[in-house]
Amino acid sequence: MQWAERLRNWERGNRNLFTYEKLVEQIRGSPGVAPDETGWKVGGRLWWMWAFSNDKLTVYSIQPGRGYEQASAILGPDFDGFLVRDGWAVYRRFTQRQPTKRVWRICSGAAAK
């Protein structure tokens, strides 16, 4: 790869990073987010693909773990919105300010406790 091509790729990457960071900011400022994660192979090893959706967008993040540290990397540790979530225990750490709804309870019509 020639120097000029590397420079163009670097510039494209920086533009994409700026866009991604803006999307993460929108998720963090959203009044409600639906997070979820699923296994994802990276180099033959198990990583996790996280998805964070609101009514307008979805942000994906492929990370090596499935814990609070990874979720808060996108939501932010002070996320104070409403979460529509499954039963994964990590999401309970975001409930200091807003209640959350567990997806299976919403689908069954029962309110989350």
SS field, number of helical segments = 3
- Output the helix-strand order: HEEEHEEH
What shape does the CA trace take?
globular
Q: How much strand content do the residues show?
A: 25-35%
Plain-language structure description:
The protein is of the alpha/beta class. Helices cover 35% and strands 29% of the residues. It has three helices and five strands. The chain has helices spanning 3-28, 68-75, 103-108; strands at residues 32-42, 45-53, 58-63, 82-85, 100-102. The chain has a five-stranded mixed beta sheet with strand order 3-2-1-4-5. A hairpin with a 4-residue loop joins β2 and β3 (58-63). The protein is globular. The model has no long low-confidence stretch (mean pLDDT 82).
Secondary-structure topology with pairs:
Elements: H1 3-28, E1 32-42, E2 45-53, E3 58-63, H2 68-75, E4 82-85, E5 100-102, H3 103-108
Parallel strand pairs: 1-4, 4-5
Antiparallel strand pairs: 1-2, 2-3
What's the short story on this structure?
By secondary structure, the chain is of the alpha/beta class.
Core attributes:
3 helices, about 110 residues, globular, alpha/beta, 5-stranded mixed sheet, single chain
